[in-house]
């Protein structure tokens, strides 16, 4: 780890088993990003593979942090042992002291020691991470005319606030197949559930015959957005829309639709958040892709 001005601070790693320290991180993220991650406790807790690295003051206040976690991926049909970085923040009064660089290097050293082939993060300040070997990955969404002639099956709305539905969804997330062979996480249960509790107007519908849950949104103009699909196999998009009984005028799929028996136009993502990868150039997907919004971290 490089030298940092740590006067009065204590460096801590792997501290999620300490409830006071976990609450300190929750407070940091609430204060900096106005995101209440303490809600993850009700959803089963943070990712058990998490490895947090942070600085704390004498009162137990979390001053700086970044957390690494296992994020196995499929990229171009090949399994990749990857990690993600999240919860990176420094309190304003302590910036410029090298604290963030110190926790970043601690996290990357951990990822290297664990043998991860790649490390990913999402950021709105990509230049900050290029010095650590990260490079941006261009993401796309896929839009077009909805397919017709699908076969409808029974669908049931799930609620993450319902314990039985949460248990079912957790089980499906544990055994899910990748939503795309171009680029997709193999597990991301904790972030899926957390994002489901945050995204406005999100619908989670279980297609009972397929045993798959569709995360989707719709607006009053007939536009439908498919954010993710959780199941051991992917239903065709025509069957999904028929089962949801939605008269879509236009559909947008927020991941590569190579398993959906439908091809939309690949449109470059114009959002503020940039997906970045640290790893060999050969791990970059050959065709347009996107990280599903339900897996964003």
UniProtKB/TrEMBL annotation:
Gene3D superfamilies, A to Z: 3.40.630.30
PROSITE patterns in the cross-refs: GNAT
Pfam families to which the protein is assigned, alphabetical: Acetyltransf_9 (PF13527)
InterPro entries found in the cross-reference section: Acyl_CoA_acyltransferase (IPR016181), GNAT_dom (IPR000182)
EC number: 2.3.1.-
N-acetyltransferase domain mapped to chain residues: 13-159
Keywords: Acyltransferase, Transferase
GO terms of molecular function: acyltransferase activity
Record-linked CDD domains: NAT_SF
Protein name: GNAT family N-acetyltransferase
Organism: Shinella sedimenti
């Amino acid at each position: 780890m490089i030298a940092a001005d740590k006067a009065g601070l204590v460096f801590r790693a792997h501290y999620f088993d300490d409830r006071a320290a976990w609450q300190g991180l929750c407070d940091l993220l609430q204060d900096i990003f106005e995101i209440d991650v303490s809600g993850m406790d009700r959803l089963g807790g943070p990712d058990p593979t998490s490895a947090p690295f942070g600085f704390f003051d004498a009162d137990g206040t979390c001053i700086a942090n970044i957390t690494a976690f296992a994020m196995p991926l499929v990229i171009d049909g090949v399994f990749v042992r990857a990690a993600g970085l999240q919860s990176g923040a420094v309190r304003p009064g302590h910036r410029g002291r090298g604290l963030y660089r110190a926790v970043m290097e601690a996290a990357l050293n951990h990822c290297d020691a664990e043998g991860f082939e790649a490390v990913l993060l999402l950021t709105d300040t990509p230049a900050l991470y290029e010095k650590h070997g990260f490079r941006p990955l261009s993401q796309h969404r896929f839009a077009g005319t909805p397919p017709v002639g699908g076969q409808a099956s029974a669908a049931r709305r799930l609620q993450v606030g319902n314990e039985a539905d949460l248990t079912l969804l957790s089980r499906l997330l544990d055994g899910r197949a990748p939503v795309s062979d171009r680029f997709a996480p193999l597990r991301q249960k904790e972030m899926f559930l957390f994002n489901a509790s945050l995204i406005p107007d999100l619908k989670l519908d279980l297609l009972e015959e397929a045993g798959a849950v569709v995360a989707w949104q719709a607006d009053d103009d007939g536009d439908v957005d498919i954010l993710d699909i959780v199941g051991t196999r992917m239903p065709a998009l025509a069957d999904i829309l028929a089962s949801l009984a939605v008269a879509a005028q236009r559909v947008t799929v927020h991941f590569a639709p190579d398993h959906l028996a439908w091809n939309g136009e690949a449109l470059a993502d114009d959002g503020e958040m940039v997906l970045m990868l640290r790893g060999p150039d050969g791990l970059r997907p050959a065709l347009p892709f996107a990280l599903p919004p339900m897996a964003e971290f």
